[in-house]
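Lab notebook page, bench 4
Experiment: in silico fold of construct C2
Operator: M.H.
Input chain length: 207 residues
Purpose: comparison with the prior construct
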Amino acid sequence: MGANRSITRARGAALAGAMLLVSLAATRTDAAAVTPIQAGDHQETLAFGGLTRSYIVHVPPTFDRAAKAPLVIMLHGAGGSGAGAETETGWNVTADREGFLVAYPDGTPSNLKLPASFLLNPRIWNDGSGRGAMSRNNIDDSGFIAALIGHLEQSYGADPARIYLTGFSNGASMTYAAGVRLSDRIAAIAPVSGHLWIKDASLAAVL
């Protein structure tokens, strides 16, 4: 009998220890999930399509991840960059005032083996036009934007019902293309000085 009671106590202690470890792990996970995101710019990367894609996320001072903030994605023109679009557009001022997130992703250089350069190796978007390096490199930029949206929804609390896309020139054409192909993910688009190149322009879903 004494041996049985010892075994029972040992099993009970082991079970209690296991439950404590599970509880501590859950506490650490919950704490990580609610860690505040600092206001300001966050330089990020995302692995997609065999490439490491870069972008900036701007977080407003009043940001609350649990509140599900709207998201604006701004696409630069050919030769530009996310950092340049951030400086030139003034979206951050509006975002800080109205309380939404802004993302400024980078296109890919025409020559993927060399550093980007505005004149010599411009960053571009594969906007569906089939022009030059955009087509040769066969970059899935619509897929990248979809992956970016998913990451920002998960990591920054972007509201899936309030995802907006805008862009200039080549970025505007990419905005049209992504607006068509990702109409089930994007609430509205606002292209500026661009063209809708894709011919099969049927929406992915009815919003």
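Observations: Residues 13-32 have pLDDT under 50 and may be disordered. The first helix runs from residue 2 to 33.
Next step: discuss at group meeting.
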